Amino acid sequence: MVRKILVVDDEPVLVETIAYNLEQAGYQVFTAADGTSALQAASREVPDLIILDIMLPEMDGLEVCRLLRRESSTATTPIMMLTAKSDEIDKVVGLEVGADDYVTKPFGRRELLARVRALLRRKDYPPHEAEKSEQETTNEVPRANRELVAGPLRIDLAGRRVNCRGQELELQPKQFELLTYLVRNRGTVLTRDQLLHNVWGYDYAGDTRTVDVHVRWLREKLEEDPANPRLIQTVRGVGYCFRW
Q1: Cα–Cα distances in Å, from 36 out to 56, 65, 91?
Q2: For the whole model, what pTM was predicted?
Q3: Which CATH number fits the domain 4-124, given the four candidates 3.40.50.300, 3.30.310.50, 3.40.50.2300, 1.20.1740.10?
């Protein structure tokens, strides 16, 4: 089945270049030049992935991302944001409003396609699906494969819900996958590159800032004191470890 990708940017030359590279790689491409058109195209075409520029006329990409996440048809659709090299704050905010990844302009064909493949692969095979598929030959799935419990956390793998200290948390898809991976590997120090490979599906060294932003947001939702985290701990110079 041919994958559909929506490209949203108001720079015609850049859109044409991205579309050409994606089509050469076998993807079907739709384009939009502003936020309103992007929302309409996403509703009409239901793409498998959305490439979304932050700087758009009338409605910026951050607001478009927020609105896409509110729609059931695009709530879990992978979103990759395009940012300028100097827009560090926009990168952070983009991930916090629901984007799965970002790529900094200018970027090459190889990086673009690698990130697209990684996002689509994670869409097809999220971390909890590997364990789930092993149980498909039986009618009863063991409780250990339906739920993870670690200290104050209860993670419903099938329902993709997280409860912490009796309160249900709202997590974006990538946040859920990162938390699940950390909890499954509790007590193990995981490097940022390991997390990029196993949660984001990167086959190359990606931007580790992506991991840091997601960890920061998880801490804000999970920790009683995010400035002094007890659950997701930083191992300086290495990465992160979930401890309980």
Answers
A1: 10, 12, 21
A2: 0.69
A3: 3.40.50.2300
